[in-house]
Amino acid sequence: MSAIVYNDVAELLFGPEESRSETQMVAFRVRQGRVVRESISPPARESRSDPGMTLAAFICAMLLALFLGGCNGGGAMDLSSYKERVADIHDGVAWDLGYVLESLSGLSVEEYRYLEELGGIFRNAKGIFTSAYQETESLVPPGEAADLHRQLLEFYSRGREETGILVDALGLFQVVIPMLADVQNLALPTLSEQARPEEIKAAAEEDHRTMNMYVGEMEGITPPGELASFLEEMYAFFCAVREWVIGVEQAVPPGELEALAQFQVRYTEVAGKVAQLEGMINGYLGGIGARIDALIEEGSALAAGIQGL
Known about the structure:
Blueprint: H1 3-14, H2 22-25, E1 26-31, E2 34-39, H3 51-71, H4 79-103, H5 114-137, H6 146-182, H7 197-219, H8 228-249, H9 256-307
Antiparallel strand pairs: 1-2
Helix pairs in contact: 4-5, 4-9, 5-6, 6-9, 7-8, 8-9
């Protein structure tokens, strides 16, 4: 071994040469009356941990654990434990859907004050679907349950989306149903044919403020996609009524009575349009039960799949 190599190894094992004393490297013994020089190993050095090396070793150990965890399937549950857990999650969803369906009986525009309570029921159902999805997603199914696991996640995701749409729809109806009632009770239609100009002007200004408020409210609403055409139709209708009102408000004397008469003729169309829009709302509300039924049917099929594991 060359001297350079020796010195490198010595420094690696024992530290730099200048830090080593002679007694660390040689010893003198008396043998048969002669002094003999012998090489000896240095005394054991006190172990000193390097914080940097300790951190590096810890990181390597964590990475190794993560790698090995990925290689062993991420800790898949045994079939019995998985079945018990998803059955418990799914039972909670099934119970809530049954309660929602029971709450839908007799729902109509005439019961619009009940929409707020029903909206709360659907918000709760959306929360249950969301929790069911998150809890199921956190599970690692055994191989034989992988397909059912995927179907459960798809079902909970779809239920969360469906109930979310219904929450938004019911919120929209809570806003527009009172508008449809109020547009049939404007001030101008109640005036007589002999109303004074100042009475016509005051009624027109009042109705203008009312229609402006409602049109502005609708402009701030983002409806569910499936109700966008409904809101567009209602918005166009309210804008038209507002234009009729403005026509009376801006009438030049002595044309106020003529403008009022023209408004009242047009206004006869309002009741029919309101009835049409309310019919659209009732049709939507009537279809909610079928949507919940579809979720219940799909959920029942999945419950049978869970029991069959």
